[in-house]
Amino acid sequence: MSATLIAVVLALFLGHAVAPLARLRRYGWFDRWLAFGQRQLDSAFASPFSILLSLGLPLLLVAWLQSVLDGHFFGIFGFLFAVAVLIYCWGPRDLDIDVEAIEEAPDEAARERAIAQLAGEERRPAADDEAGLVTAVFSGARRRWFGVLLWFLLLGPFGAVLYRLAERGAGASLGHLPPAHAAAYRHLLAILDWPVAQLMALALAIAGNFDAVYGAWRDWHHARRGQLFDFSVGFLDAVALAGERQSRREASAERALDAEAGLETPEDFPPDAPAALPAMHAAMALVWRILIVWLVVLALFVLAGFV
After folding, report:
1. What is the distance between the alpha carbons of residues 129 and 69, in angstroms, rounded to a whole number?
2. Which residues have CB under 8 Å from 90's CB, separation 6+?
3. Residue 216 near residue 239 (C-beta atoms within 8 A)
């Protein structure tokens, strides 16, 4: 597990320090594979069980490479393979760069394009939609960062590829796959996302205001009492909004104290900036805190010798 921690830290560093690596994150081959299977197999692809073929074959190759490389040459090749897979599955776009693009957009048209890159065209919030931008940041963090990271920690490169291809299939399947096959991808992604969202909420409670986050989490589940369990992660939006509001209240209180003490605190955004940008900025800061909590907990497990 110590090698896993080093691989995670190295992959995070390289992914941010070496920008050209982001250009290697291309999954068009998987879209073409889905389209090819639909053309060639037709009715066989209409079954939800056909996901075992469309997703199983790429995963089988990754599992074979992982097993072959592990334990050979002192584990060096297996380690390099793990780092390469994690870098490849991360993203595909850098979340913090997309958020910065929204904040630094020179005009409204550029800001709208940047928001579309962050949230996607289908779920694109308006530039003045505080709740929409906050939830877009947390949804992006779950899909781009934490989903890949959790399943990598649990299953190694196989887990990272499993999550990324499930996420890709759930999004691209609308154009390539029959309804039952597409639904199988969406159900699989929901199952993979649920523990990720729970651990993000827990880390947010630890890194932020526990009472506010836990209260939002509890109220969301209380409102759904009596409904069938469906792996919904809607609670993450609720705790994200609660954590962001509390974080901004605390920041405002600190600025007020600084003002009373005669200290000047520069504004993060110009006066004519959309009012939702500070909320999105606070949400991104909370996402960084969650990532730090995850890495610290993993490091503690390694140091304690539990794994």
Report:
1. 48
2. 11, 12, 15, 25, 144, 145, 148
3. yes
Measured at the CA of 93, the angle between CA 91 and CA 94, to 5 degrees, comes to 85
Tell me how far CA of residue 191 lies from CA of 21, 116, 241, in angstroms. 29, 26, 23
- Tell me the CA distances in angstroms from 207 to 7, 89, 242, one per residue in order: 24, 26, 13
Residue 104: predicted pLDDT: 87
* Per-residue pLDDT tens over the stretch 148-173: 999 999 999 999 999 999 999 888 65
**How would DSSP label each residue in 94-121?**
-HHHHHHHHHT-SSHHHHHHHHHHHH-S
Per residue in 240-266, pLDDT tens?
A: 999 988 877 766 666 565 556 655 555
How many Cα neighbours within 13 Å face the side chain of 254?
9
Which tens digit of pLDDT belongs to each residue from 184-233? 999 999 999 999 999 999 999 999 889 999 999 999 999 988 888 889 99
The type of residue at 47 is S
Q: How far is CA 25 from CA 22, 30, 161, 287, in A?
A: 6, 12, 12, 22
Cα angle: 221, vertex 224, 229; to 5 degrees: 90
Q: Does the predicted TM-score (pTM) go above 0.85?
A: yes
Residue 138 vs residues 135, 200, 225: alpha-carbon distances, Å: 5, 9, 24
The per-residue pLDDT for 147 is 96
Report DSSP state, residue 42: G
Note whether 192 and 55 are within 8 A (CB).
no
